[in-house]
Write a structure and sequence with these properties.
The protein is an all-beta fold and 231 residues long. It has one helix and 13 strands; from the N terminus they run E-E-E-E-E-H-E-E-E-E-E-E-E-E. Strands 5, 6, 7, 8, 11, 12 and 13 form a seven-stranded antiparallel sheet that branches. The protein has a six-stranded antiparallel sheet with strand order 1-2-3-4-10-9, with no helix packed on it. Strand 3 and strand 4 form a beta hairpin. It starts with 15 loop residues before the first strand and ends in a 33-residue tail after the last strand.
């Protein structure tokens, strides 16, 4: 699709740095869990002059929901500015940690080379399309909005708090991956391969890439992204 990029050594489900409180509810415990995966600087794969470069994805899970943070190599320019070169971000969540359910990840739909998130996406937060009140939507696998949340854009970090109620009441032990870019094109993904795992127990079901396009009702981002549902 685009020029190949160097794949990172991140394995499926791997994360860098994880802290947990075993006293909380949910499978495997985990009242509060923070998981972070880093991404190399300078590994963008777009062709335009503006290349948003993601350096880390962090998800903190607690009993009430999750807090997501996406770090960039440069100060973020919010889409609220109206600039087509502002940073667009999608963060996908596999809440049941089962790659055979949900829809395909926009990271996999748009990655420039081989690899896989190993995720079936049950929910995602759309940090590319801001509402008039500066909120963004949380969307489920049926592409229906479950609610809106207000992100914070501060320096090189974009963060957002998502309550469990917007994730279908899930225990918020989940897998995650993210992609950044502009209106015109994607420019970087995190992690390079695999996903960030935030708690949970047991192995993730094998990835099943067979899919059919969901179009024109599918997921779009600027000029370039499509969504494909799992059979």
């Amino acid at each position: 699709m685009l020029a190949a990029l160097l794949l990172g050594a991140t394995a499926l489900g791997a994360s860098v740095a994880c802290r947990s409180d075993p006293s909380g509810p949910g499978p495997g415990g985990g009242g509060t869990i923070t998981a972070t995966v880093s991404d190399p600087s300078g590994d963008t794969f777009g062709v335009d002059s503006v290349q948003w470069d993601v350096t880390a994805l962090t998800v903190t899970r607690d009993t009430g929901g999750i807090t997501v943070a996406v770090d960039l190599s440069a100060d973020a320019l919010s889409p609220m500015s109206g600039d087509s070169n502002s940073v667009f971000v999608y963060v996908d969540f596999d809440t049941d940690q089962d790659s055979t359910t949900g829809i395909s990840s926009i990271v996999d739909d748009s990655r420039p080379g081989p690899g896989s998130t190993g995720m079936g996406v049950d929910f995602f937060v759309d940090l590319a399309d801001f509402n008039a009140d500066s909120t963004v939507n949380v969307v489920n696998a049926a592409l229906s909005t479950t609610g809106s949340v207000r992100p914070t854009v501060s320096g090189k970090r974009i963060s957002v708090r998502i309550p469990r109620s917007l994730l279908g009441g899930d225990d918020a032990l989940l897998n995650a991956a993210a992609i950044v870019g502009t209106f015109f094109e994607p420019t970087d993904i995190v992690p390079e391969n695999g996903h960030l795992k935030v708690g949970g127990v047991g192995p993730v079901a094998p990835y099943q890439p067979t899919a059919t396009l969901q179009s024109p009702q599918g997921r779009t981002w600027g000029r370039w992204a499509v969504k494909t549902p799992r059979r």
